[in-house]
Design goal:
The protein has helices at residues 43-54, 74-82, 95-111, 128-150, 167-175, 194-197, 223-237, 254-257, 325-362, 389-396, 428-464, and strands at 17-18, 31-32, 121-125, 158-162, 179-183, 205-211, 243-246, 270-276, 288-292, 304-306, 313-315, 366-368, 376-381, 405-407, 416-421. The chain has 465 residues and is of the alpha/beta class.
Amino acid sequence: MISKRSDLHKLPDSELYLSPTYATRYFVERVPKYKLPESITPASVAYQIIHDELNLDGITAFDLGSFTTTWMEPEAEKLIAENMGKNFIDRFEYPQTNEIHQRIVHILAHLFNAGENTDFCGTATIGSSEAIELGLLAHKWTWKERRIALGKPYDRPNIVFGAGAHVCWNKFAKYFDVEPRIIPMASDRFTIDPGLIADCIDENTICVGAILGTTYTGACEPVKEIDSLLRVIKRERGWDIPIHVDAASGGFIIPFTNPGLEWDFRLPHVRSINVSGHKFGLVYPGLGWLIFKNRQDLPEDLIFHVNYLGETMPTYTLNFSSGAGMILAQYYNLLRLGREGYTSVMNNCLENTTFLAQRLVTSGKFELLGALELPIVAFRFKQTPSFTPFQLSQKLRERGWMLPAYRLPEKADGITALRVVVRESFSHDMAELLANDIINTYNILDEKQTEQLEPHTHNKRRTSV
């Protein structure tokens, strides 16, 4: 995030310094906020100043909009703390960490049904945004190499995805000079329409994107239908267009809650998948994974071989240095939970999701925006009261809940949604408390608006008598 305050010269002197109540015990001079202090600050004091400021942040357990994990077991946190100083890129110095990384790639490839004899490959990333951009870049390069081999121009690549995709898809298109062909939502459809894809693709299409759990509503896009369409296109027109599945949210859920759903490497056109370890992989931020079905889906030209860390090693990342702690925490979860544990956790999340959704719907005040395929409750007002979902969201902050309200993308932007992500740490009791607070807050706002109207109406009646 680009961050700079341009109004510092306008701030009063008192706003430019930190002045905690106990500061006079330790400081002769105040501590500047926006400039480097001249002297050393005692460790305990520096900690206390920052600790106290962070009390103004929301409580992570009440952050209903975040997909990222906010709780891990103490043993996992111990592993993270023990390995915080390890730079994952230094694989010569930390060979066993690299071995564990390779094990996770194998586990995920098999989880996504790559097959025992498939020559898959993959890598850890900072998050799904990096994983998506790397996956799409590989597809662009594969398309480019194929066009060069055919003696055809390769200066106008395009990519097709739905308006429900994460902003990193748009970033990829802009940063890597690819034309985005975005299939819009509709007022009654919040995922990509496979019927519209055929009109968007051509011989310059590097990839079609499918989302297994959109950020807006949590809906899973019809990957199998998209794959069937692309099979027909390949047979009739000769265009071999891959699918990249953005399974940032759903990749650690669907394999355990609905293993029969075909969305992964069982489908021939699905060539790459990303998943977020720091979402329902149950690891703290930031960790993502990118898996290719075949080694040939990652062009060798994109892999850099560096030899200044002790030995020559291949690397395919946008970021070079990264901490090893979250990779090891991911391995901890995979060992600790196994298939049985992940299935139990995800089904429990879905049960709490269903309970919360039913409470909201039976209140008669809200309606859901789609099926509950993932532990995400996206809903809107059923009627049109005199207050907005944004006001409801703001009012709920008085109870500590951070419930996001937002408009859907173009062509569905008449809908304002509210969204609750039901994470592992979100219990049944919390779901009940939240449902009560949402409904009660709605009633309070409704009554307040009624009270503001009634005096006016009453006075008007008295005047006319």
